[in-house]
């Protein structure tokens, strides 16, 4: 427990703050106090503060932090309601800091806080701009990881290499310190999608950074559970895609288009089944296939492309009908433009593709405005 009289964190003096430690939390009530105690020990001699950024925890984490922060001035809390996302939480915390150096550490004690002073000094004393905790170099280790997770992590790291301007042995690490002005320089270009804020940072900053790497062993979680789920892989791909092509095309449009292609497959399958297995006439079969494909596209876009503003329950049904409406107008645009192009060039497939592209872009723009409005 925290004992204020002997707690080294509580020694308040007039020294300027040197380091802000940003700590993202999502249901970490069991970890917050042990972490603060460990930080107090590890960071003795450095003037530091902790900035917690909590995303709608339901296990009492923000209430606990509020109580702690009332008596401990080294603890600050940013509470976000409804929003979710590790990267954006970290960025928000870092932007709220005023210290020259900002560090980021997980709340769940899996990052070794004893390495923090090394990260800090690499920047404060040795002139580096960024210092990362790494599991893949300098005596670092992944600890008790299963072979599968190791393979996935290595594969993800390899995928990242084309977009990294600064070479890092462990770009997936969420454990690092950075000069605040460097972070501010990168901030306008950050994607802040998903988990990988360090990768986002080195991909978004306009030039390679002077980086130091300090090894650490990834610990095993004691309390609470990991928030990594199936969506994390998708969010990772979104980050890579956004960094690679985001300046030219929105990632959501690419996802929308990819789902649209799958929708064409659904359409043809349904058409085939209705005609050949049920024996329905073409017009009926085609109508069924259109409705099936639209429903499929709506459901998938709602689950993936627009999962940040996902519709549920009644809103799902309302959204579906607005999507039907959008797509009907899209079909009109598709046929109209297709016919125009056909009259000009007489190439049936050019006309077909032109119509499909215009129709799809319409569907994308109009549905983002009518169906997923939040
Ligand atoms: N505010 C906020 N919002 N915090 C979150 C969210 C969120 O949506 N999701 C997770 N967190 C917090 C957790 O409470 C924890 O403190 C930290 O972010 C890491 O989350 P975990 O769910 O424990 O992730 P992990 O252990 O699987 O992933 C760690 O290892 C990765 C490398 O393999 C993290 O350190 C990642 O940053 C790192 O990339
Ligand atoms: Mn963890």
UniProtKB/TrEMBL annotation:
Keywords: Glycosyltransferase, Membrane, Transferase, Transmembrane, Transmembrane helix
Record SUPFAM superfamilies: Nucleotide-diphospho-sugar transferases
Compartmental location: Membrane
Annotated GtrA/DPMS transmembrane domain residues: 255-372
Family as reported in the entry's similarity comment: Belongs to the glycosyltransferase 2 family.
Gene3D superfamilies per the UniProt record, alphabetical: Spore Coat Polysaccharide Biosynthesis Protein SpsA, Chain A (3.90.550.10)
Listed name of the protein: Glycosyltransferase family 2 protein
The keyword Repeat is assigned to this record: no
Transmembrane regions listed in the UniProt entry: 253-274, 280-301, 313-342, 348-372
């Amino acid at each position: 427990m925290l004992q204020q009289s002997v707690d080294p964190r509580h020694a308040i003096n007039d020294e300027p703050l040197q380091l802000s430690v940003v700590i993202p939390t999502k249901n970490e009530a069991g970890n917050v106090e042990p972490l603060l105690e460990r930080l107090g020990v590890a960071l003795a001699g450095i003037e530091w503060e902790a900035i917690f950024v909590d995303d709608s925890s339901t296990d009492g984490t923000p209430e606990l932090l509020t109580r702690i922060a009332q008596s401990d001035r080294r603890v600050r809390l940013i509470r976000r309601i409804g929003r979710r996302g590790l990267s954006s939480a970290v960025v928000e915390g870092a932007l709220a800091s005023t210290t020259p150096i900002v560090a980021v550490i997980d709340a769940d004690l899996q990052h070794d806080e004893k390495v923090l002073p090394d990260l800090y000094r690499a920047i404060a004393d040795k002139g580096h701009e960024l210092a990362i905790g790494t599991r893949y170099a300098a005596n670092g280790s992944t600890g008790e990881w299963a072979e599968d997770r190791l393979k996935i992590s290595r594969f993800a790291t390899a995928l990242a290499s084309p977009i990294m301007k600064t070479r890092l042995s462990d770009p997936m690490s969420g454990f690092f310190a950075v000069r605040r002005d460097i972070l501010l320089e990168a901030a306008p270009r950050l994607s802040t999608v998903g988990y990988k804020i360090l990768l986002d940072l080195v991909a978004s900053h306009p030039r390679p950074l002077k980086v130091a790497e300090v090894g650490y062993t990834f610990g095993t979680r004691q309390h609470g559970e990991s928030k990594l789920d199936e969506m994390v892989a998708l969010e990772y791909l979104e980050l890579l895609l956004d960094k690679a092509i985001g300046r030219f095309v929105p990632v959501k449009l690419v996802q929308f288009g990819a789902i649209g292609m799958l929708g064409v497959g659904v359409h043809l399958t349904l058409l085939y089944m209705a005609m050949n297995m049920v024996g329905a006439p073409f017009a009926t079969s085609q109508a069924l296939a259109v409705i099936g494909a639209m429903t499929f596209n709506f459901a998938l876009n709602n689950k993936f492309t627009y999962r940040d503003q996902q519709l549920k329950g009644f809103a799902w049904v309302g959204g579906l009908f607005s999507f039907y409406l959008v797509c009907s107008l899209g079909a009109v645009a598709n046929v109209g433009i297709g016919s125009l192009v056909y009259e000009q060039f007489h190439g049936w497939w050019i006309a077909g593709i032109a119509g499909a592209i215009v129709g799809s872009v319409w569907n994308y723009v109009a549905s983002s405005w009518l169906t997923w409005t939040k």
